[in-house]
Write a structure and sequence with these properties.
Two copies of one chain form a homodimer. Chain A is of the alpha/beta class. The first copy, chain A, is about 45% helix and about 15% strand. The longest helix of chain A is centred in the last third of the chain and has 25 residues, at about 415-435.
């Protein structure tokens, strides 16, 4: 006999309460999991709805709707889990109208502000496969072929970076004692993993001391007679490096930020002085970190020289190539990474210039046994003699994102990536040229890669800007002006660039200059799209000019 | 004019080299990214191929092919990235024949050895949507609606755990200063994030000292006059907790493992003694960790009592409910989590009993401002006054896995999850009953949840086992016997249970007993499937008996 139950609480505001029978609930829930022709039909129905959503989404050139935050706040404020299942059709409709409609079109050719891009279309069906297989890479028993696949894909990237002879790879690529790299959820974990390896190695077991991994940092320093342990990188290092330094118990201030030169590369003289200071004070240098593509401007640190400094002090040399690792594919641009094979570890993000979906970073390790410094075991999983990947990863259970990497390396190929990267560079130079010739804009940094830093100059200040006569007050005004411009552009949602603040420009070290920042990596972005982004900014600027009662800088100040 | 190029190196062994024109390569690569009717057709073609693969995969009841490791090694040993793109059709064919065929059927109703399950079918189309939107949750500018959606889903779980009044949630659920929880890649990062918050809080700024986050652990301890800082949990805590303790620079030995009682719950007297010892030695207790569902046997620690001990010493109280959080949905079983609302932080894994795909863990925080202890900013992203989620997360860029969570909470509902969990418990009891009545098997731990620990006893020892007269040598033999059984079962690939080693059974504390371990959470697993798993083991055992020349224990020993 069925029990009648009325569900009259716990429903999210957006969905009306419905009545249902208890037995009906059981059936409905089991149907969600069933493997049958009927179930595949239901799935196909949802799939058709979602394909319609994805196609509309992909066809849109605009970045987002101008929906305000308050309205989204209102939509997503319900805090009770619905008591009974909502109808899938209703939910998907709501999802389309609210969630999808108000997502950011990160693949729009006119969304050139962050490190996202359109993805190759084979990724979309593969994501369904990945979810269906639902492998767990922590352990061979939960992944089997995907464990081997992951090791292979990482081995391929290792070879791209380090280029050891073939028999090195024959030996190590699938050897359970060797770890050529790890797949992690993103660049932050890749950097953290690399520094963790360095930390455990440089503070390892010594003279009866069991090592930092076991005993901890305070004892590890005491045993070595060091006051502090530090990690050194440039002032433009990604914030994840400071975060990692803090997580490891070193304290964020022990990530030492060395000033950069006008090209945003680490100053070698300042680096050498920092290193000498640390040694003088008996501070242990755990690692030196070089940037291959700073987040703000795409600058590449001098790798060979940094590796020499690292070798001199016996420090681990890590390269954060989360963004710039893609240069490796380009015969034309690769020479700028001379010395990358001298790194002990290299971070590359899959979800950046490898055109993989969000959620895949990699760290590659030169020495196949370095990761033993972080190895752990458990008896129900990752047992000591197994080939289980989870023995030497920061994360435990994790998805087989390796499948995307493996597919893209094969379906795009080395030359495909080369073409994509060269194109990005070419289009960035095109945008730089447009910025250079228009007096409304000022190029702030000579682009070394495919990130462009520029700003708009209000009309009344353009002449002074051209003559190099801007005062600190002028620059302050221009900063506010660019913040406003970027906000208006973002809110309108037709095109997008991001913004940052630079401390190192022609205006001197330590002078904060707000910069518009464009990141050009989307293969769909054409010259016309780039012009459309700048035209959109010019339109907004014209509006600002018109609404100003005066063309003086005071007039501009008034309306900011 | 086109340039002819021959690609004769860099091809993986499995694919034949092809010739292609340079201009053709460009077109092929751009076609991968195109948004057009043609591109959607190509995508649909791949989708059809992949749907066929996924349906075959889902219909299979077997766990995996018996393909040997050596053959997979051989298949995935090529280390050169293909120079030119491979044809998608060819690649997908290979993918089906090798990668998919040799993946583990983690959703098989007879794969009841790890914490995986069949997934609800709406997840599969959603995964395509997730990939298409490709949002980055680090920042509002790269996610918009999905930022709000994530906060809502976390707020719902927070309410499920802590049950604060509605106006608490109205205030905090979307407030930029509040963090009710974080979505991370899995339970390991959830535990690490919780402990990081506890670490930064308990070693925070004091008397002119800027805090551990900034200055590091050695100074932080010195300022407090402490010799060591520790984290305390049971001997059955997940290995991620020791890993996290090590990562934070505390050293793995400073994760203190308190013995458990016969039910695998932390011994309260031993806990109190440990805490007293730490205080006597002037050691700072950063956190106490309770298990809600130990990985090995699903045991639940005494939460109320542990929270009292934590409060007494002013330690953070963390609950690792990665596996057992699902009890919260069940009115019948929820009472066993009394005290969960006393925790400062709770880990729950989405990819376990919330039936979400691999790659989503959560940590919920009782105090909406606790996460400020780990906040960081950067000028190109996660700026100080923003609503950006990335300000207070360990990871940086990360996918909108929140979409799966949001959908499942709505499409399964609280009562749907309740039904699923109750069913899992019921079926586990069924399996326990089968094990109890068959003299071939021995139940090792009374199941508290839906994990079952048992073992097979070789025929010659069954009588002694029944009379409780097994010697240490007998147990050693039985251990080897069960390792062999599990290996043969796994290799054959028809059914699957995992194995672990227990130190706490009726055979005494510290006596290592190899246990078969079954985890029953798959809604598709029926009583018949459970019988099939045990029958499969009986068959293998019969084979072992037959191949043995004697029925004595010496005979068994010979063939192991």
């Amino acid at each position: 006999m069925k029990t009648k139950t009325t569900m009259n609480d716990g429903w999210p505001r957006a969905f009306p309460p419905v009545e249902c029978e208890v037995d009906d609930l059981k059936e409905r829930v089991l149907r969600l999991f069933a493997v049958s022709d009927d179930a595949f039909l239901a799935e196909a129905e949802n799939e058709a709805r979602i394909s319609a959503l994805t196609q509309d989404f992909l066809r849109a050139k605009n970045v987002c709707l101008s929906t305000g935050m308050a309205s989204l706040f209102e939509r997503y404020r319900e805090s009770k889990i619905p008591d009974s299942p909502i109808d899938a059709g209703e939910y998907l409709e709501e999802l389309g109208e609210q969630m999808v409609a108000n997502a950011i079109n990160t693949s729009s050719p006119r969304y050139i502000g962050h490190m996202t891009s359109a993805l190759p279309h084979f990724i979309r069906p593969l994501s369904k496969l990945l979810t269906t297989l639902n492998q767990n890479q922590v352990k061979l028993e939960t992944s089997k072929s995907l464990t081997f696949c992951e090791r292979q894909a990482l081995g391929m990237l290792h070879r791209l970076i380090y280029g050891f002879p073939g028999d090195f790879y024959d030996e190590h690529i699938q050897h359970r004692d060797s770890t050529l790299g790890m797949i992690v959820s993103g660049g932050t974990l890749a950097n953290l993993t690399a520094l963790w390896c360095a930390y455990n190695s440089s503070l390892g077991a010594i003279d009866g001391f069991a090592g930092v991994d076991k005993v901890g940092l305070p004892e590890a320093l005491k045993v070595r007679g060091s006051q502090r342990a530090v990690i050194i990188g440039s002032a433009l290092s990604h914030y994840s490096l400071e975060k990692a330094t803090s997580l490891l118990g070193l304290g964020s201030e022990n990530f030492i930020k060395v000033p950069v030169d006008r090209d945003h590369r680490i100053s070698l003289s300042a680096l050498r002085k920092t290193v000498a200071d640390c040694r003088e004070r008996n501070q242990l240098i755990i690692a030196l970190v070089a940037n291959v593509g700073t987040t703000e401007s795409g600058a590449i640190d001098p790798l060979v020289e940094m590796s020499e400094v690292a070798a001199e002090v016996g420090a681990h040399f890590h390269i954060d190539a989360a963004w710039g690792g893609a240069l490796l594919f380009s015969r034309q641009h690769r020479r700028r990474l001379e010395g990358i094979d001298l790194a002990d570890s290299v971070t590359i993000d899959g979800h950046k210039q490898l055109y993989l979906p969000m959620g895949i970073g990699m760290v590659l390790l030169k020495h196949p046994h370095l990761a033993k410094a972080i190895e752990r075991n458990a008896r129900y999983i990752v047992r000591a003699n197994s080939i289980d990947l989870g023995k030497r990863t920061l994360e435990g259970s994790r998805p087989a994102m390796a499948m995307f990497l493996h597919a893209a390396l094969h379906l795009i190929g080395r030359r495909g990536y080369e073409f994509l990267f060269n194109e990005s560079i070419r289009k960035t130079q095109y945008m730089a040229d447009l910025v250079r010739v228009d007096p409304t804009f000022e190029l702030l940094v000579e682009p070394q890669m495919n990130i462009l830093n520029y700003r708009a100059i209000p009309e009344p200040l353009q002449q002074r800007a051209a003559m190099g006569q801007l005062s600190p007050a002028d620059n302050q005004l221009i900063n506010e002006f660019n913040i406003k411009l970027q906000r208006l552009q973002r809110q309108a949602g037709r095109t997008f660039v991001s913004r940052t603040t630079l401390d190192r420009t022609r205006y001197g070290q330590g002078v904060s200059i707000v910069s518009l920042r464009s990141v050009i990596a989307n293969p769909l972005t054409t010259e016309a799209d780039i012009r459309a982004v700048l035209d959109n900014q010019l339109e907004i600027l014209a509006g600002l000019n018109k609404s100003s009662t005066s063309t003086s800088s005071a007039g501009f100040r008034e309306q900011l």
